[in-house]
Amino acid sequence: MQIICIFVDIGIRIIIIQYANHLHRRYSMKQYRTKYKECIIEYMKKNEDHRLCAKDIYQALVEQGLNVNLVTVYRNLDKLSQQGLIQKHTLSEEDSVYYQYAREEKCNHHLHLLCKRCGKIAHLECDFMDIIRTHLLEDHGFEIDCKDSTIVGLCKECREAIHA
To answer: Which residue stretches, if any, does this entry annotate as coiled coil (predicted)?
Structure first.
């Protein structure tokens, strides 16, 4: 009876140790992934008025000394986009995807102006938005989804630089 109890006791200890190791690995991996996610968000906050591609973000993280790969950056950007923390913009003429930090839910209620030359993003947060929204709805029966709407053109500085 005593020998069986010792084996059972050793077996339970082994199972407990294995489970503890499993939890430690799982928790460490979660923290590891969260670290990249937080670094991406912080970088995007600092650059909220510019378009950023995954490679720009990747390069910035590497320059910060993080050991990250491009696939991890893409995966985190997709998750952050799905969560609504960042916005994903696609420029059809370039066939490229750019990302922008979504400033607190405000970005869902206005259009964005994107300079195709320098990448600067402006938020169209003025009374004109209400006029556009009302006109499109009443005259065309069309409701704008501002979350994914971007008007592409040239900012004042780039227009002046081109015409100088």
So the answer is: none
How far, CA to CA in Å, does 141 sit from each of 79, 137, 144, 149, 150?
Answer: 33, 4, 10, 17, 20
Q: What architecture (CATH level 2) is domain 104-164?
A: 2-Layer Sandwich (3.30)
* CATH placement of domain 1-102: 1.10.10.10
Q: Are strands 111-115 and 150-153 parallel, antiparallel or unpaired?
A: parallel
pTM above 0.70, yes or no: no
Rg (CA), the chain: 24
Residues of the chain with CATH 3.30.1490.190: 104-164
**Cross-strand bridge partners of residue 124:** 111
